[in-house]
Each structure stands twice: as C-alpha cells, then as structure tokens.
Amino acid sequence: MAAADKPLVRPAGPADAADLAGLVRGLLRFEGYGKLEHVTPEAVASWIAGPAPAIEVLLAELAGSAVGYLAFYRAFSLFRGGPVLLVENLYVDETARGRGVGRHLLAAAAAEAARRGYGRIELHARADNPDSRAFYRRLGFFEPGEAVCRIEDAALARLAREGHQEDPGTDR
Questions:
Q1: CB-side exposure of 159: number of CA atoms within 13 Å?
Q2: Which domains are present in the chain?
Q3: Which pLDDT tens digit goes with each residue over 57-89?
C-alpha cells in the first residue's frame, strides 16, 4: 500500500465532532437503527471532550476526509486482573471499505492498549455479520463462547423499579 493510500489514524477531538457524527449516523443506518436524532455534532463533542471523556475515538482519514472511526473506553476484567480496551464501535464508510482502514484502526487501538498496559482488546461482533467476524479472526481475535445480553428502554425501566424497594428487607 502506497503511503498516499494508507489511512491516517489519529485521536479525534471536539473539532472532529461533525465528521464523527456523520460516521456514527452512517453506522446506525447500516445496522438498521431508525433513531438518529441524538447523534448531533454537539452531542458527539460533549462525549469526547474534557479531561475524562465518556468515550475516546480514533479517526481514520483518507486524502483528508474522515472515512472511519473506532470508539473505545477503558473497562476492567476481574478475571485478568487488569484494564481492558473495550471497543464500542468500529465503522468504515462504504466508500473506503477494502482499503485497510479497519485494520489500521484496530492496529492503532492495539498500540494504544499496549502503551497503556492493557492486556486485552474486546469487541462485540454481530452474529449476522460473518464477514466482520472472519475479519476479526484473521487479526487474531477469538470468540470466547459468551453471548451479549442487553436490557434497555421499557424493560430496563421495569427492572429499575424493582430496585427502588421501600423496605430493602422485603422481596417483591
């Protein structure tokens, strides 16, 4: 790959919020999410700004245009006894796929994990996306046999109401 064809990967900052919001919305559309209105440049800037941002982002550029991102945060593994770099999203715009952008983003994340002394990178891959799962396996990722379990919206609210017991000694 010629240097001009190699993506530039760098940390994203608040000045990148508009580009990043566009990429996040692209991922949401790709995955079939209809709800996009919460992903605004202002919201994205607030997520990645400050001394303790909610999430960190690596941005990939080709020819000066943002074409992909990897969003991550620090997690902790009790089993490993140390911090883990948890990838929240990895997305490459359709126009840049097949050009090594995803690989460069993950390599930059691996370098950052190593720099910080993190012993693991973890990510979730959709079960219905065999191409992405095969890509991750080629890079050395493995599937530990665990399934992602998630609760949100109305189900989360119902369960949360159970946590607001009047008498903590009683079981509802």
A1: 7
A2: 3-147 (3.40.630.30)
A3: 999 999 999 999 999 999 999 999 999 999 999
